[in-house]
């Protein structure tokens, strides 16, 4: 079982790396040729959201089987109430809501990525020291903050929601400098710790953040890095995936976890459309904004439910 789990985690790590490298190369080529219209970037962002949503929609499948009767009803009620309150808050206070989402996402992404590596270390029996905090901060904040304070971010945010353009006030240069400096420090720490795999990961994330347009950086990171790696970790929890791991079918284990979240993907897309139509949505302009609002709102309970899995992985011993 552990062999199948390690195989899947390693394969997903390689695939996510090649995906980020592809995003960097595509961005460079299209920038040089000058044919990277904003609408194409929006399409990529929508595709990334569609790919990524299922990874956060398996929470109830992993958690609810442990409940029965009244507890299950209370769980769903609390989960949906938190999502509803988050949607209301973001729509009522676009800028403050976005700032909180940025911070929340950076923390969630970083912890999740560090936990992913810890799961690999535990199965490999690696004795190398892993500077988890440094890696988590860098892996979370680099792909989130650098694209959002780049020179191209205003155009992308204007397309998503004009109220978000000034989200960082006059602090954008400072945020960029601090984040870029910390990226350099993190790369040095990984070098001195001889964590070569993590060095490659951070180098790729930094390259994507610096070279790709903001929406493209988000699309490739969220859909082809964070979501894939998190889904890989879900196979360690989901019973149907664990059964596949027991018989050595790691690919089947992955798709069991991914497909389990597809119904929620359909429900999320439908709800975002209904929410937008209730607020006079113009489909060709506003759908990305309302879909992002729903995804951000879903991230709030998602973070709470994955915290147990994250910290268990980060605190587990190698062996």
Helical percent range?
over 70%
End-to-end Cα distance: 14 Å
Report the structural category: mainly alpha
* Radius of gyration, CA atoms, in whole angstroms: 19 Å
Rough outline: globular
Beta fraction: under 5%
Folded structure, characterized:
The structure is a single chain. The chain has one domain (about 1-315). It contains 14 helices and no strands. The mean pLDDT is about 85. It has about 325 residues and is mostly helical. The longest helix is centred in the C-terminal third of the chain and has 33 residues, at about 285-315. The chain has helices at about 1-35, 40-50, 60-65, 70-90, 95-125, 130-150, 155-160, 170-190, 195-210, 215-235, 240-245, 250-260, 260-280, 285-315. The protein is about 80% helix and about 0% strand. The two termini are about 15 Å apart.
């Amino acid at each position: 079982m552990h062999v199948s789990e390690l195989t899947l985690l390693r394969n997903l790590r390689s695939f996510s790396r090649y995906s980020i490298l592809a995003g960097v190369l595509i961005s460079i080529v299209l920038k040089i040729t000058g044919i990277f219209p904003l609408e194409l970037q929006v399409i990529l962002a929508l595709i990334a959201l569609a790919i990524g949503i299922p990874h956060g929609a398996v929470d109830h499948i992993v958690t609810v089987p442990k409940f029965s009767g009244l507890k299950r009803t209370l769980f769903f009620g609390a989960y949906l109430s938190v999502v509803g309150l988050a949607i209301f808050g973001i729509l009522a206070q676009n800028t403050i809501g976005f700032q909180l989402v940025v911070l929340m996402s950076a923390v969630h992404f970083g912890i999740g990525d560090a936990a992913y590596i810890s799961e690999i270390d535990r199965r490999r029996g690696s004795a190398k020291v892993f500077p988890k905090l440094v890696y988590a901060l860098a892996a979370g904040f680099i792909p989130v903050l650098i694209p959002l304070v780049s020179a191209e971010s205003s155009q992308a945010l204007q397309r998503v929601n004009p109220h978000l353009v000034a989200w960082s006030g006059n602090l954008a240069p400072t945020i960029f400098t601090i984040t870029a400096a910390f990226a350099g420090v993190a790369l040095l720490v990984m070098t001195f710790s001889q964590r070569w795999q993590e060095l490659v990961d951070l180098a790729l994330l930094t390259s994507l953040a610096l070279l790709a347009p903001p929406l493209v950086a988000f699309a490739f990171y969220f859909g082809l890095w964070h979501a894939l790696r998190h889904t890989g970790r879900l196979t360690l929890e989901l019973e149907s995936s664990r059964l596949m791991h027991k018989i050595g079918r790691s690919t089947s284990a992955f798709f069991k976890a991914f497909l389990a979240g597809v119904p929620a993907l359909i429900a999320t897309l439908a709800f975002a459309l209904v929410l937008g139509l209730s607020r006079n949505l113009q489909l060709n302009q506003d759908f990305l904004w309302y879909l992002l609002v729903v995804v951000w709102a879903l991230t709030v309970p998602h973070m709470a439910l994955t915290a147990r899995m994250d910290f268990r992985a980060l605190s587990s011993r190698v062996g």
